[in-house]
User: Fold these one by one.
Assistant:
Number 1:
Amino acid sequence: MKLRTALLGATAAFALAPAAQAERGTDGELKLLYSQAVSVMTPYLSGGTKDIDAASLVLEPLAGFDENGVVFPRLAAEIPTLENGGVAADLTSITWKLAPGLLWSDGTAVTSADVLFTHEYCTHPEGGCAQLSKFGGIKTIEAVDDLTVKITFESPKANPYTAFVGATSPVLQKAQFANCLGAAAATCTDANFNPIGTGPFVVTDFKVNDVVSLAANPNYRDPAKPAFATVTLKGGGDSESAARAVMETGEIDYAWNTQINPELQEEMAAAGKGVFISAFGGLVERIETNLTNPAADLPEAERSTVKHPHPFLSDVKVRKALSIAIDRQALVDIGYGQAGKPTCNYVPAPADFASDNTECLTQNLDGAKALLDEAGWTDSDGDGIRDKDGVKLSITYQTTVNPIRQDFQALVKGWWNEIGVEVELKQIDPGVFFGGDAASPDTYQKFYADVEMYANEWDGTDPETYLGQLTCEAIPSPETQWQGENINRFCDPAYDALVAELRTTGDRAKRAEIIKKLNDMLTKDSSTIIALVHRGRFSAISNTLGGVVMGAWDAELSRASDWYRIK
Amino acid sequence: MTDTAIPKAESQWVAVRAQFVKHKGAVAGVILLALLVAFVLIGPLIWRVDGTFVEPDTAKMFKLRNQGPSWAHPLGTDQLGRDMLARLMSGGRISLSVGLVAMMLAVTLGTFVGVLAGYFRRLDGPLMRLTDAFLAMPLLPLLLVLMVLFKDQLSRTLGVEFGTFLLIAVAIGATAWMPTARIVRGEVLSLKTREFVLASQSIGARSHRIILRHLLPNVVSPVMVAATLCVAEAIIIESVLSFLGQGFPSDFPTWGSLLHEGLDDLRKYPMRVLMPGLAISLTVLSVNYIGDGLRDALDPRIRGR
C-alpha cells in the first residue's frame, strides 16, 4: 500500500508540470462529501472540523502549516523568524508583512487594518469566539504600516506561530464584519454564511446543514488557480457511505473522514475508483498506567492520590512487562488499517519531534514474563496469576464504550492473561468518562482503575503544553476538584526542569531535542504511558483528483487551490 | 341405600394440564424454551470452549478471525477469533436469567399492587398515584442512576458478574411492574361486582380467601400477556444498558451485546447478527405461546371447550 501511495505521489508530481500552465476554472466541478454537514462558514463561530475545513476554502490566515508541520506563507510575504528579524531576539514579539497587491474577492485591497480587526473580532469580551485560545498571550497588536502588523506578547513565546497561523485563525474583511462585533457576531448571517475572503473560492449558495456551492475567486492571487470552476460541498450520511461514494461509485471526488474497519477498507480499495489517503498528526491511542492506588477500600478522598503509591504499577518492571506484552501491529490491523500505525511514542509527530523509540514495536511475551520473574512476581499459589507478598497482579482496565476499544481490551486482556496478569474490563460512557464532573467516580481524571485507555492530542504543531501536562503540579486530586491533565500522577523533578527549559527555548532543533528527551522519559524509560496506535486523518480521494497533499496540521481543504482534474 | 357411583373428582390442575397440552403452540413453546434453557445450561458442559478466550499468539489469532462454521467452531468465530457457539451459550445464560428474574419480579409486584388497589377502595387512590409516579419517571435515566449508584458496591461485595446481574434484574423488574398493576386493578374492579364474588362475600369469606381463590385465577390471563411482554423488554433493556456502558462489562457477552457487536459487520457476516437475534426472537416467541396456552388453560370459561 505504501509503495502504491509513493507511486501515486510520483505520478502526481509529473502531472503537476502541465497543471502549472493550466488556466483558472478549466477543470469543471469539484465534488466534496462531508459526513457532517457544514453549518457556518467561519471558524470563529464553530469549533467543528467540518466548518473549519469548509471556511478554509474561502478564508485564509497569514500562514499555514504544511504536511510536516512547518509554517509556510499564505497572505504573508514571508515567514518571520529569528534569523530574518521578524521574531524579536527575546521572543516577545513577531512582525508579519502582508504580500503586496492582495485583493479580497470583492476587489478591495487587503490591509493590516483587516488583521487588526480580526484580532478585535475574536477577542471581543462579549463575543463567544471559538478560537480564542489562538489569540492567547497577546499584549498588543499594532499596524506599523498598511502592510505590516506587529504582535507583542505578554511573555516570551518560544512558539510565536499561533495567531493568524493555520485555518483556525484566518483574516476577516473589516468592511464586511465591522458591525458584527461581540454579541452581534452570530446575528450577521449574511457575513457568516458568505464571507468575503482571499481564498481560491467564493460562496455562491449556502444551505445551512446541507450543501455549500462555491465558484472560483476571480481575484485569487495566483492567476492560474484554482483549476476547478466550481465546488459543491455536500454534507450528511456516515463515513461508510461517504467512502463508498468515492471508492465504489465514483460520484464524489473527495470524502472526508472515512474511518471504517480495515476489512471494509480493503474491500473498497479493490473497487479501484479511488484511494484512501492518511496523514498523521499527534493523536495517539494509549494505555495510561495509574501510579497511585485506586483501591476501593481506601477512604474516598485518598483513592488514586499521591498519598498511596500503586501496589505494583509503581514498579517500572511491571509496567514495562505490560507494555512489551502487547502486539501493536495486531491492534492496528484489527482496529484501524491504513488509518493507524503502531507507535511507542507520546509525541509521534512532526517527524523532527518524534523520538526513534521503536523498542516496544515487537511483541515479546517471553521477555515480559522474564521481567516479572526478575521483579519477584511469581505464581506462588498456582492459580495462574502472579503475586508477591500477598498482592496479586490483578488489573482493572477501563475505557470508553467504543467497538474498536472493546476489541482492543479483549486482545490486550488475552496477552496480559498469558503473562500471568488477571484483567477485569470496564467500559464507561464517553460523555461521563471525558465529562470532567468531579462528582462522578468514572471520569478519566479521577482514574479509579489501574489502567485506562483513550486517545488524545495537542492543538497546533507544538507539543509544549501537551508535555507540560505531566508535571508534578498538574496532578489531579480532590484539592483541585480532580482537574489537571497529569492523570498518571507522574512526578519527576528532572522532567519538570526539562519542561521549564523547553518553555524558554526558541530554536527548533534544540526544542526537538528536549521534546524527544521528555517523550522518552514518559515512554521508553518508565513505561508510564503505554502508547499503542498513532491515529491519523483518513479520507478517500478519487483517482481523477490530482494535487492532493494531505497534512494533519492544518485544515484538509486549506490547499484545495492546488487540486486539479487528472484527464 | 343405593350404591351411586360418584365419578372421581378431577383436580383442577389435571384439567388445566389437559387443556394446556391441547394447545399445540403452547406445547411447542415449552419444548422450545426447554431447548433454549438446555442450550445455555447444559451446552457449556459439553462444549467446553471459553467464549471470551482470545488467542494470545497473534499469528494464530489472525487465522482464527471471522471464520465460517467448521468442526472446530460450529457457528464460526467473531472478529477476534472467539468461538461464537460458546459466546451464544454464555450470553444466553445472562440474557435468559435477566429476562426471567426481571419478569417474575415485575409480575409479582404488579399483581400485588393491582389486586390491593382494585380490591380495597381505600388503597386504590394512593397505590394508583404511586403507579402513575413510577410511570412518569423516565426509565432509562433512572436505570442509569441506579447503575452508577450501586454497581460498584454490589460488584465489590458480590463479584462483578453476579452483582451486575442482580442489579440489572432488580432494576428492570422494579421499573416494569406498572402496566401489570394497572391491568390487574381494572380486572379486579370488574370481577369484584360479579355474582360469584358477591356470593362468596355473603357467606362470610375473608378477603384473602376471595382474592386467592376467586380473583387471582381470573386475572391470570392478562397477567400472562404482560409477563411475556416483560421478558422481551427485559432482554432488550439489558442490551441497551450494555450499549451505554452501564450493563455487563464487555467480557461477559449477552445476546443483546452480541447483536450490537455484530451490527458493524452486518453486510459481510450477517450470521453474527442473525444468531443472537434469532435466539432473542425465539425466546420471546416461545414465552408468548406459553403465556397464550396458560391463559386458555387457566381460564375456566375457555377450559373444556
Number 2:
Amino acid sequence: MRFVDEFRDSEKARALAAKIAGLCEPGRQYKLMEVCGGHTHTIYKHGLEDYLPEQITLVHGPGCPVCVIPMGRVDDAMALAAGPDVIMTSFGDMMRVPGSNGSFFDAKARGTDIRMVYSPLDSLKVARQNPDKRVVFMAIGFETTAPSTAMTMLRAAAEGLTNFSIFCNHVTIVPAIKAILDSPDLRLDGFIGPGHVSTVIGCRPYEFIAADYGKPVVVAGFEPLDILQSIYMLMLQLSQGRSVVENQYSRVVPWDGNVVALRAIGQTMELRPYFEWRGLGFISHSALKVSADFAAFDAELLFDVPGVRVADPKACQCGEVLKGVLKPWECKVFGTACTPETPIGTCMVSPEGACAAYYNYGRLTRTRVSEASRT
Amino acid sequence: MTAGWIDRALSEHEQQQAAGRNGAPQPLPGTVREELVLERIDRVRRARPRVREDRITMSHGAGGKASQSLIEAIFLDAFRNPLLEPLEDAATLDVGGARVALTTDSYVVSPLFFPGGNIGDLAVNGTVNDLAMAGAVPLYLSAGFILEEGFEVEQLVAITASMRDAARVAGVQIVTGDTKVVEKGKADGCYISTAGVGLVAPDVNIGVATARPGDAILVSGPIGDHGVTIMLARGELDIEADLASDTAPLNGLVAALLAGAPGVRALRDATRGGVATILNEIARAADAGVVVSEDAIPVRDVVRGAAELLGIDPMYVACEGRMVVVVDGAQADAALAALRAHPAGAQAALIGHVVAEPAGIVQLKTAFGGTRIVDLLVGDPLPRIC
C-alpha cells in the first residue's frame, strides 16, 4: 500500500539499526523519551525495540490525551452527562477511562445518554437532530485536537446553535515537557518530539529544550521508519555533542506550525492559570478553557460542575509511568489488578497509554522473542 | 471513594501477593525481574475469569476478553457439562449411535442490508459455518424472528428470500421457526436467531485443544472484509470503498479440505474478534504458543487502508466466510492445495505455526521486522457486526 509500506521497509530498518548501533559509545546508557502516545503505540505495534541495542532505552512520555485526565475530571463529566436532557458526546478512547464510579461505558449501561463520535463536528449533528436536548462534547487532547474543537465552536456560533457546549479538557504539551525536565528523578538524553502536535504548533516551542536544557529534540513521524530515523538523528547529535531541534517529519510538519489552526484556538480558547494532570499534579498554564467570548458554549459555566478532586487509588503508579520513572511492568499492580479490561490507571486504558501498549503488544522479553524465532 | 470493583481488585491483589510470599515457588537465581512479572501476569490470566461489572456493557458482546469472561463466568458456570465445556462453535452429541453437531447463533447486525448481503444471508451462513467448523455436514436449520412493530414487510420478504437462497447454496433446509413482535423502540427492526444440526462422519475428530507444536496455521482467504464493509455501510465515517461482505457458506470448502488433508486438527470461522481472537483461542485451548507472520496474512488493500485510517487492526475485524485451519505440519502443503483448489479458498495462505513456548501467547512477526504479542481484544471498536 502506497505511503505506508515504504515507511515499514525492514531492509531499511536493518540498515538504520546498524548505523544507530555504530553511534553508541561503549559503556554508555541512553534514555530517549518519545513524548507522544502515538509514537508509543507505533513502537510496540511494530516491535521496533527489537532493532535497538540494549544500551538504548525508550522512555514513554506523557503525550497520551486520555492518560493525563485526572479521575475528578471524569467524575465531573459524568455528573454533567447525568443532568436532565443532556446528551454527552465523546471520543471512543475516553469511554473506558475509570472515574470513581466506573467509566462512561458503565454510565451508559446505567442509562446515561453518552454517545461516541469520530469528530467533534458530529456532535453538532447530534445537537441539530435533538433540539430539545443539551449536547455537551467532552473535549480532550493536546494541540492536535484543539483546533477541531475550536472549529466546532466557530461553526456552532455561525449556525446560532444554542443547545451545544464544550466540556473543555484540552491540554498543552510544552508545560508538561518542562515539568518532566524539571523533575529531579529522571535523567533523559533526548526527546523524540510529538509529530501531530507539531503540525499545529511547529518546532519552535521546543527550542528551549535544546538551548536551556542541552537536550536534542527530533520531531518525528508515526511510521516505524520515521521513529527509527529520529532515533538515529538523536544519536548523531549526541555523538557530536550537539543539541538542536530537528524536524524528521518535514513532509507534514511546517517549522512554524499551522497559523490558521493556531488562530482558531486563539479565537475560542484561553490558557487556564493551572490544570491538574493525572500523575503529574497541577501544572501552571498547561491547559485551555473556552474563552470569555465563547462563554455561551462553555459547559463549565452552563452547568453545575462538582469540581471535586479525587485522589488516585494508592496502588496506582500512573504518575511515575507518565514521567518515565517506572517502566509499565515495574508498577506494583501492572497486569494483575490493573489490566486493559479492568484498568485502574489511565495508562492502561488508551491504546496510546504506555501500560496498555506494553500489555497488549510487548509482554515479551528478549529471551522469549529469541526462543520463538528459533522454532 | 473509588469504584467498588477497584477496591475489590486491589484487595484481591493484596491477598494474592500475601499468598505468593508464603510458599509460592521461589524464582530461579538469575531470572530477570521482568520475566518474573510476566510469569505473574500469565498466572493471573489463567485464573478463572469473572465479570466485575455490575451491568452488561457493549464490551460483553464484542467477542474479546469481556465476552470470554461473560461466557465462562456466567453461562459455563450455570450450565456446565462435558459437552459444553470445550466451548466449540458447535457441540458434538451422540444420538442413537449417530454423531450429531448442534449449534445456535443470533444476529443483530446494523444496518440490516449491506454490500454483499443482509442479515438473512448472515443468519444462514453463520450457523452453517458453525456446524462446518465441527467437521459436520450441515443438514437442518431453525429460524426465530424478533420483529419490531413498524418494520416494513417488504424488507422482511427480501430477508427471507436471501435466507432461502443461502440455504439452497449451502444445501440445508430451514425446517422450523418462531416469530415474536415487540413494541416500537424495543428492538431495532429485525433480529434473527438460527439453530442448526448436522452429522459428523465417524472418522472426523476436530477440536482446538488437539493442536500441538509443529502444526501449521492457515487462513482460507483475505481477512476483515465483512467488518469493514459494515462499518462503512453505517455511513458514519464518510469513507467510500469498493468492498463487499465475505458472507458465504464454508461447508463445501471444509469437505474439500478434509478430503485432501486428513491431518486437520481444528477449524474456526473468524467472526467477531477476527483472526486474532481465534489464534488466542488455539493457544489457550492447546496450552501452546502461536507464531504468525504479518507478511503472510492476506488482507485486501482497501481493508488495510480503511483499517489504517480508523486505527483498527484487520486481525481483529470480523469475517463471515473465512476460517482458520490448524493442520499437522507435515500436511500443510496438502491442506493449502486443497483449499486453493476450491473457489471459496482460492486465496488461502499459510500464516504461521503452533510452537511449544511461551504457552498461551500469540506472537506476530511484524512486516517491519519486529515481534509483538497479539492479545484478545479489549473494548468494542465495532458493535453489532453480525
